Every structure is written in structure tokens, then in C-alpha cells.
């Protein structure tokens, strides 16, 4: 397989700008520690050009019919599928996840463009019967305006695509700043859109110092909508910036997903599903099941099965076809995971498996399962965003639901039970924007993706995903 990593660029007003003769930062393959590229950083002049470009691009794009916009988005989806192997290779090189996961992610990114192509054609208004026969009353949906979007490094294909596709389908122009750790995948998405016929300036891609770019873009009067996926502290800050300018913001923030395993659950299936779900993406997924609450009568049996299923997952380079757990994506995660494990151990937690960094090259960490974790341990309060699962006992469903809802996070939650009564109750009482009963796969284009409480506001994906990029205009005509 050709594992060449392409040159990296900014995209401003339809022009590709390389890293030559400008500030840049290295892109490192987390499986090999090799520097594979340098991502260019936008200057203030670049950002000003991007703002002017997106302003002009919006005027063109909003006046392009929904049918023509849909054609371009569908063509881009087709190009992503045609180029999926090359893009997946880029994704695995820069992010580290196994190639089979990267292929799935690129396919899902294409699905989002196809889905929103159709949603854009169905952003219906309505005619409201008037109290007077002389008056016609129309309600229209129109694009909100240029968008500033910020996406992280853990899903470098799906997360940018979900934002770009919805904004473009609505008729908005968009400036996106993807994660500097994984820039190549976003560049290939932009290239597919450009090759599909997207007019210059409708999509701009910039990289650089996150705080500088976010503050500049959000404060610009040209930007009318903000969307961010990332950590809770950064989300709070960007929300404050957007609030000062009275700009709506969609936030998809961190999680600390609880799992309730009832004593009537199929323990073999549950252990297998949770091992795959927990350590997919090396646990660097905001939906990742982390606090696994198991009914006391079956906890030891479940632990044995869960440990066995987790130990069977091969750790390695994402290009090895047998790999199920790749490296962590950057050194910051290695330190954070190490600190959490050390803290839990010092407070009496049992390490059932894993608990250490894998020696040698690369940022590999063993899938780790902790039991007997005290309530004051760091991992009980902060999102680990890595390959750590905590297994805790509960006696009654009331106890489990109380613990599951204890934290301010509310992105995802899961329940495993063969009881319809328990399933209904978990669905009703778990405080999360997304709830999986007897499975953990919830990222699909046709369904809403979003959290509540400190995990964010608004939804991306599904019929809901396009609404935040639209405004409602009422026209009353005599």
C-alpha cells in the first residue's frame, strides 16, 4: 500500500497556499513518531482574505438554487467514495486509528454530504392562512450567513463533513479550522468539493493558533453563525465570544458516558460490545462508554468477560490488518492517561488489565480496565478521552441512574438489559442527548448528534442538523 502523505495547504478564496515561507507546525504519525508533514499557519492577512472571501462566496452561494447546491454536494460525496482508500490512508497516518476504522469514517463523511444534499432541497417554508382574504402570509427558510466552524482531531473526516455539508446545504458559506494534528483529511474533503464545482470562497480552510483564529473569526461582523466540537472549557470560552456578538453557536463538547449493565443482560454480548466500543478510536471518542455500572450480582462475571474481550484486541500500527487499537493521537493524551491511572491506583483502584504505556516507538497505551475506583479519583470526574474503562457495582436501578446522572456531562449514555421495562426506564431517565440500548453505534448521518447539560447545545446530523444554519423570515403581503 502506498503510504505517501500529501503536501498540506490553506484554502483561501479557491487558492491553495502551501507551508513554504510561512510559519507551520509538524504533523506526526503517532504510530511511528515520524514527522510526515508541516501544516501552514494562517497569518492575520490570510484570515482577513478568508473573511472577505466568505462574504463574497455567501452572496454567490445563497443565490444558487437548492437543486444546484445538491448536485455539487452529491458529486463531492461520489468523489470522496472514489478516493476513499487514499483519504483513509492519510487519515490513519496522521491520526493513528486502524485502517478499517478510517475507511468507515471516510464512507460516513460521504454519507453526510449525500444526506444534506437532500435535506437542503427540503428546507420547506409554509403558507399560513390569513385572517384577511386580501393578505398572503409566507414563512420562508433562508441561510443564516457565513459560518465559522472549528473541528478537532479525533474524527478528522466525519466532524468537518458534518459541519461543512449542513452549512453548504443550507446555502451558507463557511470557514473551517480543523485540528492541526490531522489536517490532511480535511484538505482532501475540501479538494473533493472544489473538484465537484464548489465556487471559490464558499469554503475556506485555515490552520494556526486556535485562540487567535477563533477570536478573529467570531468577532468579525461577517460571521453570523459558529459551530464548535471540542472540550468543555474551550466551548465555554467560544460561547462567551459568540454571546457578546449575539451569534448563535452549536456546541458538541465532551462526555463521560455512563453504561448501566443490568443483571438480566446478555453478559457475553455486552462484554464484547463494550470492549469494541470503549477501545474504538483508542477511547478518543466523546461518545466512548467509560463509567460502566454493573449490577452487583453479576459484576465479577462481567469483569472476567470484559477483561478477556479487551485483552483480545490487538494493539498496533493502524496499517496492520489485525490491529484493533491504534496509538493515542498526541503526547498530551499519554500524559493525561498516565496521570489518571496513577491517581486511581494511589487511591486503591484495582488494575484489571493494562494500565501502562506500551514500550517502544509510537504513542501506544494498553487498553485499561479499573475496578474498585473510589469516588474521589480523578477518572470519576474528568473525561479520560483515552483507553480507560471504570467498572463499578450498583444494587438497584435507582442507584445506577443516580450515579449515571451525577456528572454535569450529558452527551451519551448506554444501557444493557433484556427487560423491556428496564430499557424504557433507562431511555426515559438517563440524562444524555444520545442513548444506546444494547449497542454503542450512534454516529449515522440521518440521526441527530448532540448533547445536553455541559456536553453542549444543538444537534448536528439528521433533520435537525440543517436547522441551525437557517433563519425564519415571515412575509405578510397585501
Question: Overview of this structure, please?
Answer:
By secondary structure, the chain is α/β, with parallel strands linked by helices. It folds into two domains: 9-253 and 453-477, Aldehyde Dehydrogenase, Chain A, domain 1; 257-437, Aldehyde Dehydrogenase, Chain A, domain 2, CATH 3.40.309. It is 37% helix and 21% strand. The chain has helices spanning 44-62, 66-82, 84-95, 99-120, 158-170, 183-195, 210-219, 232-244, 267-279, 299-311, 331-346, 397-404, 420-429; strands spanning 9-12, 15-18, 24-29, 34-40, 126-128, 136-143, 147-150, 174-177, 203-205, 225-229, 249-252, 257-261, 289-295, 350-353, 368-371, 388-394, 412-416, 434-437, 456-457, 470-477. The strands form five sheets. Strands 14-15-16-13-12-17-18 form a seven-stranded mixed β-sheet, sandwiched between helices. It has a six-stranded mixed β-sheet with strand order 9-8-7-10-11-19, sandwiched between helices. The model has no long low-confidence stretch (mean pLDDT 96).
Global mean pLDDT: 96
CATH fold assignment of the largest domain? Aldehyde Dehydrogenase, Chain A, domain 1
For the biggest sheet, the summary is: 7 strands, mixed
Structural domain tally: 2
Radius of gyration: 23 Å
Number of strands: 20
Share of helix among residues? 25-40%
CATH class of the largest domain: Alpha Beta
CATH homologous superfamily identity of the largest domain: Aldehyde Dehydrogenase, Chain A, domain 1
Secondary-structure blueprint:
Blueprint: E1 9-12, E2 15-18, E3 24-29, E4 34-40, H1 44-62, H2 66-82, H3 84-95, H4 99-120, E5 126-128, E6 136-143, E7 147-150, H5 158-170, E8 174-177, H6 183-195, E9 203-205, H7 210-219, E10 225-229, H8 232-244, E11 249-252, E12 257-261, H9 267-279, E13 289-295, H10 299-311, H11 331-346, E14 350-353, E15 368-371, E16 388-394, H12 397-404, E17 412-416, H13 420-429, E18 434-437, E19 456-457, E20 470-477
Parallel strand pairs: 7-8, 7-10, 8-9, 10-11, 12-13, 12-17, 13-16, 15-16, 17-18
Antiparallel strand pairs: 1-2, 3-4, 5-6, 6-20, 11-19, 14-15
Helix pairs in contact: 2-4, 2-5, 2-6, 3-4, 3-6, 4-5, 9-10
Amino acid at each position: 500500500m502506498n503510504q505517501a502523505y500529501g503536501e498540506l495547504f490553506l484554502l483561501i478564496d479557491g487558492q491553495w497556499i502551501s507551508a513554504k515561507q510561512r510559519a507551520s507546525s509538524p504533523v506526526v504519525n503517532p504510530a511511528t513518531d515520524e514527522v510526515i508533514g508541516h501544516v501552514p499557519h494562517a497569518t492575520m492577512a490570510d484570515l482577513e482574505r478568508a473573511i472577505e472571501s466568505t462574504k463574497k462566496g455567501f452572496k454567490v452561494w445563497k443565490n444558487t438554487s437548492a437543486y444546484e447546491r445538491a448536485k455539487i454536494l452529491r458529486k463531492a460525496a461520489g468523489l470522496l467514495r472514489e478516493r476513499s482508500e487514499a483519504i483513509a490512508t492519510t487519515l490513519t497516518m496522521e491520526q493513528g486509528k486502524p485502517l478499517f476504522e478510517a475507511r468507515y469514517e471516510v464512507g460516513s463523511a460521504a454519507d453526510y454530504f449525500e444526506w444534506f444534499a437532500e435535506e437542503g432541497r427540503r428546507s420547506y417554508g409554509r403558507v399560513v392562512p390569513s385572517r384577511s382574504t386580501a393578505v398572503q402570509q409566507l414563512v420562508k427558510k433562508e441561510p443564516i450567513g457565513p459560518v465559522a466552524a472549528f473541528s478537532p482531531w479525533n474524527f478528522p473526516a466525519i466532524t468537518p463533513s458534518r459541519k461543512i455539508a449542513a452549512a453548504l446545504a443550507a446555502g451558507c458559506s463557511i470557514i473551517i479550522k480543523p485540528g492541526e494534528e490531522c489536517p490532511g483529511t480535511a484538505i482532501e474533503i475540501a479538494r473533493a468539493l472544489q473538484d465537484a464545482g464548489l465556487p471559490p470562497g464558499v469554503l475556506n480552510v485555515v490552520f494556526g493558533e486556535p485562540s487567535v483564529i477563533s477570536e478573529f473569526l467570531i468577532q468579525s461582523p461577517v460571521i453570523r453563525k459558529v459551530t464548535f466540537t471540542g472540550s468543555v472549557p474551550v466551548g465555554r470560552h467560544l460561547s462567551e465570544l459568540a454571546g457578546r456578538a449575539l451569534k448563535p453557536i452549536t456546541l458538541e463538547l465532551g462526555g463521560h458516558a455512563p453504561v448501566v449493565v443490568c443483571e438480566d443482560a446478555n453478559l457475553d454480548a455486552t462484554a464484547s460490545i463494550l470492549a469494541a466500543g470503549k477501545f474504538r478510536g483508542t477511547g478518543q471518542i466523546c461518545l466512548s462508554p467509560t463509567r460502566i455500572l454493573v449490577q452487583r450480582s453479576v459484576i465479577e462475571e462481567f469483569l472476567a468477560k470484559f477483561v478477556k474481550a479487551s485483552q483480545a484486541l490487538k494493539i498496533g500500527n493502524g496499517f496492520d490488518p489485525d490491529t484493533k487499537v491504534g496509538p493515542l493521537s498526541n503526547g498530551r493524551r499519554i500524559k493525561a492517561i498516565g496521570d489518571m491511572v496513577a491517581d486511581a491506583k494511589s487511591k486503591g483502584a484495582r488494575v484489571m488489565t493494562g494500565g501502562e504505556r506500551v514500550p517502544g516507538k509510537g504513542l501506544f497505551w494498553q487498553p485499561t480496565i479499573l475496578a474498585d475506583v473510589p469516588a474521589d479519583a480523578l477518572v470519576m470526574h474528568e473525561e479520560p478521552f483515552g483507553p480507560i474503562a471504570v467498572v463499578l457495582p450498583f444494587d438497584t436501578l435507582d442507584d445506577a441512574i443516580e450515579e449515571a446522572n451525577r456528572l454535569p456531562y450529558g452527551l451519551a449514555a448506554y444501557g444493557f438489559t433484556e427487560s423491556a421495562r428496564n430499557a424504557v426506564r433507562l431511555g426515559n431517565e438517563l440524562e444524555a442527548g444520545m442513548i444506546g440500548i444494547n449497542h454503542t453505534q450512534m454516529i449515522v448521518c440521518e440521526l441527530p448528534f448532540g448533547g445536553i447539560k455541559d456536553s453542549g447545545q444543538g444537534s448536528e446530523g439528521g433533520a435537525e442538523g440543517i436547522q441551525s444554519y437557517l433563519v425564519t423570515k415571515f412575509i405578510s403581503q397585501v
